[in-house]
Amino acid sequence: MNNNKVVLVVGAGDATGGAIARRFAKEGFIACVTRRSADKLQPLVQAIQADGGQAHGFACDARKEDEVIALIEDIETRIGPIEAFVFNIGANVPCSILEETARKYFKIWEMACFSGFLNAREVAKRMVERRRGTILFTGATAGLRGASGFAAFAGAKHGIRALAQSMARELGPMNIHVAHVVVDGAIDTDFIRDNFPDKYATKDQDGILDPEHIAENYWYLHRQPRDAWTFELDLRPWNERW
User: In this model, does residue 2 exceed pLDDT 90?
Assistant: First the structure.
């Protein structure tokens, strides 16, 4: 019998996704992390291993059904049961509705919503057989209200929130905890530092989100007893308008 515990993080970038993978690995989980390019995952995998954890990186286009099915089968067969699944693909691309193209709108939806369905469906099939598991979706304020210039992103994030709600209601009675995390605010990343220096300057006043602190909340959700499960958790700096 395989006693390994796996956390699968789809969209394991340099910030939030990577921090979540490291947090679960710290607790003895084998971190399986994906991006479209496996090479970009090597620093994260090596960092987890250097800290004494176990990690594997996978190249996978989360929008492609055949790739997703093969990925889940490979992990479940070769590494261990996926006890926690985190969907962390963003696709936050602003554009006026007057200039938005059908191709880009559809691609954003594919990345931020459809791929969440594909991956969560395949993981859920395995979790239901075992009658346990945690499925966590990274959301955004755009999933609650659409801002000017973000029609595509808002549509996708509304969709992923609706998916999470439906899955939570269907899978909860099967002992599967599904939760949606609203991350509202700038995150401490190179992108924010380079493109929004005024916002980044508030870091010393705790004005932007620390990925490690975001990750702590994902671990908290996974550890919740089922008599007090959270479905939706909002995370934002103290100074963020909402």
Answer: no
* pLDDT over threshold 90, residue 195: no
In-domain check, residue 22: yes
Contacts of residue 128, defined as CB under 8 A and 6 or more positions apart, other chains included, come to 171, 174, 176
Phi and psi torsions of 54, nearest 5°: -115, 140
- Is the residue at 241 inside a domain? no
pTM: 0.95
Q: What is the CATH number of the domain that holds 188?
A: 3.40.50.720
pLDDT confidence of 31, banded at 50, 70, 90? very high
Distance of CA 161 to the CA centre of its chain: 12
| Interstrand relation of 133-140 and 54-59 (parallel, antiparallel or unpaired) | unpaired
DSSP label at residue 147: P
Mean pLDDT of 70-79: 97
Do the domain assignments include residue 20?
yes
Range of the domain at 122: 6-235
Into how many domains does the chain fold? 1
